[in-house]
Write a structure and sequence with these properties.
130 residues, alpha+beta, STM4215-like, 3 helices, 6 strands, 22% helix, 44% strand
């Protein structure tokens, strides 16, 4: 059985990378912080999990960070698009089924270079399928 954390990160990467609207707003969607990328870009950050099982099913609650590094006001459209894609994380993810998704925290911060970073922590509740 693969880890729920890895499965959620892969699902998030797929959902964001496959969205044509988001692709038109950012220069890329990356797994982790890219070595070289120009803003705006989206990245899938770390994931942490905890037990969310039931009497008869293995389960994990996974929190994953979705980040947008941007410049200028136009990147705000990309941040709104990422937030709109969050419910699409529900569904099959490797050996897991994501049954509940909710954005539980957002953070907006300015950077020294004039850019900014928008972070969304998403809680995914998962049940094992095998």
């Amino acid at each position: 059985m693969s880890s729920a954390e890895a499965a959620v990160r892969a699902r998030a990467l797929g959902v964001l990378a496959d969205d044509a609207v988001l692709a038109g707003l950012v220069h890329g969607v990356f797994d982790g912080v890219p070595a070289r990328a120009s803003a705006p870009y989206a990245s899938i950050g770390g994931a942490e999990g905890s037990d969310w099982g039931t009497k008869d099913a293995a389960g994990r609650e996974v929190r994953v960070m979705l980040a947008l590094v941007g410049v200028g006001e136009a990147a705000g459209d990309a941040a709104r698009r990422i937030e709109a894609l969050v419910p699409g994380l529900r569904g099959e993810a490797g050996d897991w089924r994501i049954v509940g998704v909710r954005a539980v925290r957002t953070r907006f911060a300015f950077a020294k270079d004039g850019g900014w970073r928008h972070e969304i922590v998403v809680r995914c509740r998962c049940l094992a399928t095998s």
